[in-house]
Design goal:
9 helices, single chain, about 10% strand, alpha/beta, about 230 residues, TIM Barrel
């Protein structure tokens, strides 16, 4: 599957015409056909192209829909990549935060490494989490359907508890030292509140839009105000 899109030039053209005052984050990853040894080049090209047209940038090394991408979730690659991106940022007039987006399938030892890295290389924030490969989260009657569909990231309600557990673990290790944007299974106001209670600074809604419609944002905000 990969990150299907019209290419960086088309993306930049649209970003130049975005409504004033709209906060936009740029999510960057490597191309499906790019070998991992050359992945850093894809990230730097995308970073350089969109930097002036977004408010923050998310380094996505955790999508299961691009073959081999999750293999990049190792300390050495993350360190080297963030050093490159931070050097590019230093050349710009305006400072913008760079976030790291992680998978919900990481072992606690890998999460500990991520927590340590946030201090070591000054990561500005985390996005937790991407979709999961764990099919055990599905209702057993749906596992045969999942097998027919094939590989890919599982999103939506089955992801809620697992993503919350990862979020809680990260927050215990990081605290309020840096922001965590939480996603995964948010459909109702209670789901968003659970993320905030677990330590999230912000929440992102993805699959919930499909099932709840655009009013999901209004419903969540009104409930949180109460």
């Amino acid at each position: 599957m990969g990150f299907n899109n019209d290419g960086i030039e088309a993306v930049v053209a649209r970003l130049k015409n975005r409504p004033a005052g709209l906060v936009v984050g740029g999510n960057i990853g490597k191309n499906k056909v790019t070998p991992n040894e050359q992945a850093a080049q894809d990230y730097t090209i995308a970073f350089d192209a969109i930097y002036d047209h977004v408010d923050y940038i998310v380094v996505n090394i955790s999508s299961p829909n691009t073959p081999g991408l999750r293999d990049l979730q190792e300390d050495e690659f993350i360190c080297d990549l963030f050093i490159k991106l931070q050097a590019l940022r230093a050349e710009r007039r305006i400072w913008k935060p760079i976030f790291l987006k992680i998978a919900p399938d990481l072992e606690t030892s890998a999460l500990d490494d991520i927590i340590a890295l946030t201090s070591e290389i000054k990561i500005d924030g985390l996005v937790s989490s991407n979709t999961t490969l764990d099919r055990s989260l599905l209702n057993p009657k749906n596992t045969s359907i999942a097998k027919e569909i094939g590989a890919g990231g599982l999103s939506g309600l089955p992801l809620l508890n697992k993503s919350n557990q990862v979020l809680e673990y990260l927050y215990k290790g990081i605290g309020d030292r840096l922001p965590i944007i939480a996603s995964g299974g948010i459909f109702k106001p209670a789901d968003a509140k659970a993320k905030l209670d677990a330590g999230a600074s912000l929440v992102q809604v993805w699959t919930g839009f499909i099932y709840e419609g655009p009013a999901i944002v209004k419903n969540i905000l009104e409930a949180l105000k109460k």
